[in-house]
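worker-3 :: picked Imidazole glycerol phosphate synthase subunit HisH
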Amino acid sequence: MTLKNVVVLDYGSGNLRSAVRAVERAGASVTLTGDFDTALEADGLVVPGVGAYAACMAGLRAIKGERIIGRRLAGGRPVLGICVGMQILFARGVEHGVETEGCDEWPGLVERLQAPVVPHMGWNTVEAPAGTELFAGIEDERFYFVHSYGVRDWTLVTNDRTRAPLVTWAEHGGDRFVAAVENGPLSATQFHPEKSGDAGGALLRNWVGSLS
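worker-3 :: tokens ->
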């Protein structure tokens, strides 16, 4: 059986090797690259991210990463965002009073968590919706989070022609935020599946297994 080819997008964000190893363990052939055509043609694209929203967007734009994501999604080709790689898929982010435009694949604002202790660092459960494919078999597991920002208030208006995304929520210090989204070819997690042990490995296997 031929392994699915997955590109982990290299745009200057850290923590890339652990993402590569985790996706390889999930059963894919993985290439780490920022090359436009290679990323466009892969069976799956992983967009990792650590650090500041603005810095990640600057790095992404430097390799035309937002165009890669947009063109892949226009053709129904799977993309998985992780941590800040999820946040930049939203319309904009605000850090330290500075607003940065994101990829705008989803409307929504990434903002500082309103919890007594920030960052949110460590293991946490999630509230996965009915019909989830990413969390199939691992709905009750714990995942590893490291973040100070998130999407806290998100309501999408849909109509008869569009299907609402499946949204997974989590809570930290009484503040609810988006922990994951499944929206056709576009999926994303606020937590780090590559740092989430067996549960994270199962989630990545679910995603790799969905690649056509």
